[in-house]
Amino acid sequence: MGLFSRQLANVVEWQEFREDMIFYKWNNSEIKRGSRLIIRPGQDAIFMFNGKIEGIFKDEGDYDIESQIVPFLSTLKGFKFGFNSGMRAEVLFINTKEFTSKWGTQNAINIPTQALPGGMPIRANGTFNFKINDYIKLIDKVAGVRQTYKIEDVQLRIRPIIDQLLMKWITKEGKDMFNLQANSFDIGNGIKTDLDMQLFDIGLSITGFNIMSFNYPPEIQKMINKSASHSMVGDLNRYQQVEMTDGIASGKIKGGGTASDMAGMMMGMNVANQMMNNMNQASSSQNQNTGTKPNFCPNCGQKTGDTNFCPNCGNKLA
Questions:
Q1: Where does the pLDDT of residue 2 fall: very low under 50, low under 70, confident under 90, or very high at 90 and above?
Q2: Of 76, 99, 125, 189, which sits most exposed with the smallest number of CB within 10 A?
Q3: Element (H, E) at 222
Q4: Which of 208, 212, 178 is nearest to 191 (CA)?
Q5: Angle, in degrees to the nearest 10, between helices 258-290 and 236-250
């Protein structure tokens, strides 16, 4: 008789534990006399009867269900196992760890900007963290109709929401479209708060949201990289000079041709003008400090002589 009873006993456990699985429901026809419950580190076990929570057990260990579990169940505490009958109950095993998952935009999202009438198409990617914080909501909304729930199920749930939240927080307070990475912390915190509210109803909590990178169209990224490398933002003349220098250095502007001659002449004129301006500024500064008349007009470069005004342009010299 004792041998036959042991053959009917169950071992209630999460046998095929997976790191990416959020919960697993042990579901058999009956829990027999002599059955045992095994709770491993990082797991909670929830006994349910008719879809309602009967008891939550959080301490790891190996328990005799009849003597160590049933006395603590809400409505089943007086249950007695019979020879031919067992307890009809479900056991939900919860993975208590904090989960980390990757995310990425499904499609490029067009961020409104005055520079591009159709919007700036941007992609982004990163990671987010979450954990279970409400067992009742999880059972009511998810576990009641699911045997398992994995990270990929959460990814599917939030994927269409992330694109909308990115649009919201990028456009909020007029973020710089060409330097979004500098604002990634604020954008990520905003998305974390909104995403946490979206998952609140199913008992999950977002504990972190990180943006690893923003990706622009190749032609836009090329412009950003070039502007950053030369520090040319807002200085068109200097940008043109560097473009010309790059062209000669790369061989795009060949020596001996008209283009090369014109480029060389323009560069020479620019250098000469810059030198003259520097000399005039230095001379003007020196004259202001000493109170004497310059030998050459700082405005046009004409020799001044003994007069107080330039004989060529009329500029006051002292």
A1: very low
A2: 189
A3: helix 218-230
A4: 208
A5: 140
What one-character DSSP code corresponds to residue 29?
S
Residue type, 78: G
* CA dist., res. 36 & res. 19, Å (int): 24
The span from the CA of 110 to the CA of 99, in Å, is 30
Query: Does the model's pTM come out above 0.70?
Result: no
Question: Each residue of 164-191: b (16+ CB within 10 Å) or e?
Answer: ebbbebbeeeebebbebeebbeebbebb
d(CA 314, CA 310): 5
Lowest-pLDDT range of 7-21, 23-37, 88-102, 217-231? 217-231
Determine how many CB atoms are found less than 10 A away from the CB of residue 286. Answer: 11
Secondary structure of 223-252 in the HEC alphabet? HHHHHHHHCCCCCHHHHHHHHHHHHHHHCC
CA distance 8 to 30: 10
Q: Which residues pair with 298 in a beta bridge?
A: none
**What is d(CA 154, CA 289) in angstroms, rounded to the nearest whole number?**
73
Flag whether pLDDT at 268 surpasses 70.
Answer: no
Q: What percent of the chain has pLDDT over 70?
A: 73
Q: Could you read off the pLDDT of 204-262 as tens digits, one per residue?
A: 999 999 999 998 888 777 766 666 565 544 555 666 666 666 666 666 655 555 555 55
**Number of H helices and number of E strands within the chain?**
7, 12
Alpha-carbon distance 166 to 172, whole Å?
A: 10
- What is the C-alpha separation between 87 and 78, in angstroms, rounded? 11
Q: Are 92 and 46 in contact (CB under 8 A)?
A: yes
Which residue is associated with the tokens 């042990």? 26
